[in-house]
Amino acid sequence: MTDGKEIINCVAYADGCRVADVPLSRVSKYLNEENQFVWIGLHEPSEELLTRVQKQFRLHELAVEDAHRAHQRPKVEQYGHSIFVVVRTAQMPENAKNIEFGEVHFFVGTDFIVVVRHEFSSPFTEVRAHCEGKPEHLRKGQGYVLYAVIDFIVDHYFPIMQRLEKELELVENKIFKMRPSRETTEQIYDLKWQILELKRAVWPLADVCNWLMRSEVEFLSPETKPYFRDVYDHVMRINEMIDMTRELLTSAMEANFSLISISQSEAGKKFGGWAAIVAVPTMVAGFYGMNFRVIPASEWQYGYYLVVLATVGTCALLYMYFKRSGWL
Predict the structure, then answer these.
(1) pLDDT for the residue 233
(2) pLDDT tens across 109-151, in order?
(3) Among 22, 50, 75, 251, which residue is least crowded by beta carbons within 10 Å?
(4) β-pairing, 7-14 with 17-21?
(5) Residue 150: is it exposed, middle or buried by C-beta count within 10 angstroms (0-12/13-18/19+)?
(6) Which of 112, 85, 102 is nearest to 43 (CA)?
(7) How many CB atoms lie under 10 A from the CB of residue 208?
(8) What is the distance between the alpha carbons of residues 285 and 280, in angstroms, rounded to a whole number?
């Protein structure tokens, strides 16, 4: 993979305005200037490129190692003059059945922010355009860029939750309006698994936002802290939606099992009722099929009709009884 594909953007900003697109090798020219910072966007960078970025901005080797390997939980860590933030992205294309997760890593320092995307992560072209369209906000520095990207990621959780809630409604309709089945149980389990994965991505973000709100890092402007509080509120709303959906899924699973059990019980009752009815003629035939010389009423001319009538009558009475009892 070449730098052209790995480096999405490398732009210098001064006083909230875009100054120039700069190559990574000349970034130092735009550093250490007042009210100026560099915003770099990387997509699945190679180890070689991350090493160059590390040397350019004097990043800690442990943070760079995490950014290269990916598969990290959401977190924020401070390494001397910079912080390292990990956020998990989530998206669910229209025709997809499962959530696709990715990761975004941030290196934020005195005069730079490096954004590294991994796996299924949407490009942040929209975020950059939004920030550049509001110089008064971008003037707050790289802390505002960090907020804007995290807020963009969190906002994409809401459509996913809405879609999962709609799928839950369809499952509930299947449970209560259709015959309970193994397929419905598998759907509920699949939804619970996806909700759990989303929970793992969202829940740690509360601690990340809390840290960013309360930190005293000099390169995070105090003016940006209310923005992180807004993201924190969104994260808590998502968590509440997740918890509520998980509870409803648990209830749906229990209801499905109960209905399956009731259905099996109803089937057992029907089998038991018909077995009792069939047992009457079977018993009578068994008696008259025994190899005895003298059987009561066997030589009477009306004996056969009487036995048949009594057998049919008994079966009819049993049928009426089971029908009234709800067994048939």
Answers:
(1) 95
(2) 988 999 999 887 778 889 999 999 999 999 898 999 999 999 9
(3) 251
(4) antiparallel
(5) buried
(6) 102
(7) 20
(8) 9
For the entire predicted model, the pTM comes to 0.78
Who's near 8: CB < 8 A, 6+ residues apart? Answer: 41, 42, 43, 117, 123
Look up the CATH number of the domain holding residue 286: 1.20.58
Write the burial class of residue 161 (CB in 10 Å: 0-12 exposed, 13-18 middle, 19+ buried). Answer: buried
Domain count, the chain: 2
The 10s digit of each residue's pLDDT in 79-102 is 988 999 999 999 988 887 889 999
* Two structure tokens written together for 221: 């402007």
User: What is the C-alpha separation between 183 and 181, in angstroms, rounded?
Assistant: 5
Does 175 reside within a domain?
Answer: no
Domain boundary, last residue among 119, 139, 159: 139
Q: Are 238 and 164 in contact (CB under 8 A)?
A: no
The CB density around residue 127, as the number of other CB atoms within 10 Å, is 19
**Residue 186 is which amino acid?**
E
